[in-house]
Amino acid sequence: MKMRQWNTRKWPKISVLALSLALVGQYNMAYALGGQGDRDDASEHTRTPIKHLIVIIGENHTFDNLFGGYKPRHGQTIDNLLSEGIINADGTPGPNFAKGAQQQASDNAIYMIDPVLTGPYNPLPQPATTYAIGQPPRVADARFPADLPNGPFQITKYVPYDSHTGDPMHRFYQMWQQYDQGRNDLYVWVDKTVGIGPQNSAPAPTPADTFQGSEAMGFYNMSTGDAPLFKAMADHYAISDNYHQAIMGGTGANFIAIVTGDVAYHNTDGQPDMPPANQIENPDPQPGTNNFYTQDGYHGGSYSNCSDINQPGVAPIMNYINSQPGKAFNHGNCAPDTYYLLNNYGLGYTASGTAKPLGADQYTLPPQTMPTIADALSAKGVSWKWYSGGRNDGINTTNEYCSICDPLTGFKSIMTTSLKDNLQDVTQFYKDVTHVDTLPAVSFIRPFESKAGHPADATVPDFEKFVADIIQRVKSDKKAWASTAIVITTDEGGGYYDSGYIQPIDFFGDGTRIPLIVVSPFAKKGHVDHVYNDHASILKFIEENWGLKPLSARSRDNLPDPIASRRNPYVPRNRPAIGDLMSLFNFGHDRDDLRAAAFHPHEGNDD
């Protein structure tokens, strides 16, 4: 969550029909063109026909929030609000609406992830404005009724699709409570009782007013015309209805997970140490309150030592993880005496590479030394770049730039070497994509802030248009398009309700389901993929395609591919397990044939 307002930009109108035609055009051309490119480096030596992977990362929407009303193509199945009968196609409450009902609870002693339920809301609290552009701040949103039925509601029944709406809470310990051990019934109660935590910039939430309502229960409805561009992409390419944010919580931790498959920690020169006391999380309720945390917020606690079961908040999560079938990954993936960053702090370097000051009043993550996918690609000689909207030259950044969404600025191996030059502005991507020879093998793109889809300061239609524009730019070079896969997702769910399964992997997550769309000549047409994936699946795809090893002994790209049961394809039988996205593609070869593909001698993994 970034409590700022941002400049918006004008975008050309894009016809849904025109986009749909563009998306399906040239579908088979890739097989004829081959798309090898003219370069002769490690970037070209791949196990699949994909020579260029582009990952576009928007912000803060769950799968149900965007795809809850999506009807897949004939022969495909999906798990969403509509298929579960929670809603009808017109967005009204469905026959199983009660499955999405939200409960109230009591948690006035110590932190619990399954507090005692005290009864359902009737009706839902009125959604709040939080800091939505164009609305009075931190009040009930008068555009929505005060008597909403207890369950998910269609946002666009009350406001236009391009409207700014309130921003639900999305923090680590709060999300574990909202999940309620798989019941998904405490989204509103957690928002109303603690919100984003007491240690926040003024005005700070109080137990009497956390500036939150039931905005977490809102969804967009593709069956009534919402998100038409994303719907067109889903109809003609492939989506996952079982892809998850890697970490419970918000933007910072999940962007770091995208490049590491791991979690950042407080350190000095790479050695774990203890953060300042005011930066350590304590989700135990303040005396006399119901769930209003003691130490939490954007100017407060964000670190936890989950190796110590006696630390506040740790035992309930670890007990739940250890109670699940299978074993927690690496015993919870909590190294001894290590304080992990669970939420949003600033990263260790400026965009230009200057180390930032540290201290109790800085709320800055010290420089990290764990391996990243950028390090692995560079060591193998595979080209890559991370493009950020508003980054400019790294010195003159704009208010369209999200520093915590530029995660490699937190890493010493990047920011103290020439690799920092690979962190560039989105406008450079527009130049690089004009020819197959200048397009990196792996590109990560974080949109301009006003185009990233973040509630309150951006909108979904602007994110759609940004993505559609990227697709059109790639398709403008037929040779590049013929060898490219574009993966579209969000960093995390933004605190929105989702009805889907979450696999307990380790102390940190997984988190809620989020959208994932694959646009490529090789994507399975109109396919809805059920394989369990999270952000580490992107790493696994890169590693499998370009012949890399997992990043470290503790990174989640070590996890096996899921083995699904016939009765429930969403829950891996061999959990914890995470897929590699390969099941969203049709390469015309058996999967084992791809894995056994011959490599040139110099393509072997470096030891």
From TrEMBL:
InterPro entries: Alkaline_phosphatase_core_sf, Phosphoesterase
Alphabetical keyword list: Hydrolase, Signal
Secretion signal span: 1-32
Pfam name, any one: Phosphoesterase
UniProt-recorded Gene Ontology molecular function terms: phosphoric ester hydrolase activity
Protein name (record): Phosphoesterase
